[in-house]
């Protein structure tokens, strides 16, 4: 089918309680409930029109459910990242195996680090967060890979949060939902910035004609709905204890 929407996901690891956390306080995670919440999330992706490829859990990699971080996929290629957390780097090769059927693969090499959660794509422009997980060397390598395909890669400083997409996400067209306390919105030049009403509420996933977001941010949900977006609010409370957002649990692209 032409222009088919694909979403790659991965089952929750039974060891997710040992995940990396940096900007939140570690809490016990109910693994059974996290699995149920992830299943509902996957169902929502499918209902939004995506053909879902759900990869098996990796018990030795607690963060592997967060498939957005090991790769950046654009129309022409996939860039396999070198993640900022050393404990997560083994995730990249397993995801590369899944992606090689869909895109030619390029890679970020040392000393570069790059997490996919720091890459916000709006059309042919990629805003890339300078964070504790992504460094300038990684951004320069990404730009070297993608500039020949006509992409404009723009570094964006991030503060007080894990990734750029914790602080800002694409809603559609030129609209970006953002928390201005965590990203200086003047760096999102060319975007129409919509301010989130709750700190962690800027992480949303626009897929098909739906905006997926956590159900614990009612004020921001009203803001998005008042802009005439269709919102699907999900309970992802256990997954959020792993410093997750709704973007990081899927890698979405078109064939």
Explain how this protein is built:
The protein has 255 residues and is an alpha/beta fold. The chain has one domain: L-arginine/glycine Amidinotransferase, Chain A, CATH 3.75.10.10. Helices cover 22% and strands 26% of the residues. The protein contains six helices and 15 strands. It starts with a strand and ends with a strand. 46% of the residues are buried.
Topology:
Layout: E1 5-10, H1 31-47, E2 51-55, E3 71-73, E4 78-80, H2 90-99, E5 105-107, E6 119-122, E7 125-130, H3 136-146, E8 152-157, H4 164-167, E9 168-172, E10 175-178, E11 192-195, E12 205-207, E13 210-214, H5 218-226, E14 230-234, H6 237-240, E15 251-254
CATH topology call: L-arginine/glycine Amidinotransferase, Chain A
The tally of helices reads 6
Level-1 CATH class name: Alpha Beta
Shape by Cα distribution: globular
Mean pLDDT: 97
Radius of gyration: 17 Å
Approximate helicity band:
10-25%
Number of strands: 15
Query: In the CATH hierarchy, what is the architecture at level 2?
Result: 5-stranded Propeller
The spatial strand order of the largest sheet comes to 2-1-15
Q: What low-confidence regions span 5 or more consecutive residues with pLDDT below 50?
A: none
What share of the residues does DSSP label as strand, in percent? 25-35%
Main β sheet profile: 3 strands, mixed
By secondary-structure content and strand pairing, the structural class works out as alpha/beta
Query: How many domains is the backbone divided into?
Result: 1
**What is the name of the CATH superfamily?**
L-arginine/glycine Amidinotransferase, Chain A
What is the H/E order?
Answer: EHEEEHEEEHEHEEEEEHEHE
Distance between the termini: 8 Å
């Amino acid at each position: 089918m032409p222009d088919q929407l694909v979403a790659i996901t991965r089952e929750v690891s039974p060891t997710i309680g040992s995940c990396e956390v940096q900007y939140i306080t570690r809490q016990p995670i109910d693994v059974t409930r996290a699995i149920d919440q992830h299943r509902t999330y996957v169902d929502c992706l499918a209902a939004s029109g995506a053909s879902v490829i759900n990869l098996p859990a990796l018990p030795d990699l607690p963060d592997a459910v967060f498939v957005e971080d090991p790769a950046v996929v654009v129309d022409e290629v996939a860039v396999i990242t070198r993640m900022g957390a050393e404990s997560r780097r083994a995730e990249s090769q397993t995801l590369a195996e899944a992606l090689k059927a869909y895109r030619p693969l390029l890679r970020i090499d040392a000393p570069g680090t790059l997490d996919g959660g720091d890459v916000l794509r709006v059309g042919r422009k990629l805003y890339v967060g300078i964070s504790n997980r992504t460094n300038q060397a990684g951004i320069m390598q990404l730009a070297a890979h993608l500039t020949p395909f006509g992409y404009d890669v723009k570094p964006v400083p991030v503060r007080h949060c894990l990734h750029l997409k914790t602080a800002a996400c694409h809603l559609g067209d030129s609209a970006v939902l953002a928390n201005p306390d965590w990203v200086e919105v003047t760096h999102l030049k060319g975007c129409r910035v919509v301010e989130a009403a709750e700190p962690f509420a800027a992480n949303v996933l626009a897929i098909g004609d739906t905006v997926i977001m956590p159900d614990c941010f009612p004020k921001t949900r009203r803001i998005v709905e008042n802009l005439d977006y269709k919102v699907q609010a999900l309970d992802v409370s256990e997954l959020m204890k792993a410093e997750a957002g709704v973007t990081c649990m899927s890698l979405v692209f078109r064939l």
